[in-house]
Write a structure and sequence with these properties.
The chain is of the alpha/beta class. The chain has helices spanning 3-9, 11-16, 37-52, 62-68, 87-98, 113-117, 136-147, 155-169, 187-203, 237-248, 272-289, and strands spanning 30-35, 56-61, 76-80, 102-107, 120-123, 179-184, 206-210, 227-232, 252-257, 262-263. The chain binds 1-O-phosphono-beta-D-fructopyranose.
Length: 307
């Protein structure tokens, strides 16, 4: 079996291991999340959820810190890098540390460079992945952060979402679609950005992501019957109206929400780790339908190393 698929299917079992991982956010601390690619998206989702719950947090790409040598004001920088070796993130860690800010490295790889630089590290080596694209580890690290605000045991729910994703996505004629739009507000805008990245990385698709109501302000012009719109909704009336309008224009929608096609519990945003499962599975299934091997995505390496 493809190890990318295996690393999605094993998410429920891995979430069990989080019970032994302690990580708590403090209200009076300024957090800065730093990362590249999926790891940046993970930081974006987490900082958004923290801000919505009264915490102080910001996010920046590792490349921006490395390029401009500028560090947003913060007390603790949390550097996310699954491999622990991405050049921009390793360099950003050194710059931030030199600025006198406490650094915490979050990685899935033992003895990686990031943990040698950062003041502290959390190494989720049980979530280490062979896949080039980040899947299960994304859900694990995000669940750890969510638990840092309010504890949830996601393992049982994640199995239900995985089974439902398989059932529903297998009813979609994926060969019909060559344009994927992801929509969502707040933390779900981050989920949408990550969903778009998965469809790019694994299935080489044309993708975009927006806030739902922004979609009508221009991007909807490119909608055709070959468009699949994935909306991580909050079940608002306006989002339901938008889904109706999108269908009237001939496209297909897939709603991920408590009342949606793929149901996730409504935990006031804390359900967000579960929302990644359907979009990772969709990326994998579209890649297979295209005849691609998601284990060896085009032009990509597991960790981007600059000279
Ligand atoms: C960061 C990253 C991944 C992306 C690809 C290239 O890796 O951008 O998010 O999917 O694998 O590297 P890391 O710093 O989290 O190891």
């Amino acid at each position: 079996m493809s190890y990318t698929l295996d690393e999605i299917i094993r998410i429920p079992g891995m979430l069990e291991n989080l019970k032994n991982v302690k990580f708590n956010f403090l209200k009076d601390t300024n957090y800065l999340f730093v990362g590249c690619g999926s790891s940046y998206n993970l930081g974006f989702i987490t900082k958004t959820l923290l801000n919505l719950n009264g915490y102080k947090a910001d996010v920046v790409t590792s490349g921006h810190v490395m390029l401009f040598n500028k560090v947003p004001k913060s007390d603790i920088a949390i550097l996310i890098t699954r491999t622990g070796e991405t050049t921009e993130t390793v360099k950003a860690a050194q710059i931030i540390k030199n600025a006198g800010i406490k650094t915490i490295g979050i990685t899935c790889t033992k003895n990686s460079t990031i943990s040698k630089i950062c003041d502290d590290s959390i190494i989720l080596d049980f979530a280490e992945e062979k896949s080039v694209v980040m899947t299960g580890s994304f859900v694990l690290i995000l669940a750890m952060f969510v638990n840092g605000i309010k504890y949830h045991d996601f393992s049982e729910e994640s199995q239900k979402v995985l089974d439902l994703s398989d059932k529903i996505i297998n009813t979609i004629n994926l060969g019909k679609y060559e344009h994927f739009v992801f929509l969502g507000y707040d933390e779900n805008l981050g989920v949408s950005k990550e969903g778009a990245l998965k469809l790019q990385e694994m299935a080489l698709q044309y993708v975009e992501y927006h806030e739902p109501l922004e979609y009508r302000h221009g991007p909807i012009s490119r909608l055709t019957e070959k468009t699949l719109v994935v909306i991580n909704s909050k079940d608002t009336a306006e989002e339901k109206k938008l889904i109706k309008d999108i269908k009237k224009l001939g496209a297909t929608t897939l709603e991920i929400s408590f009342e949606g096609d793929i149901s996730v519990p409504n935990l006031n945003g804390f359900e967000v780790p579960l929302r990644l499962i359907p979009i990772q599975y969709l990326g994998y299934k579209k890649a297979i339908q295209m005849g691609y091997n998601p284990d060896t995505p085009k032009n990509l390496s597991k960790s981007v190393k600059l000279e």
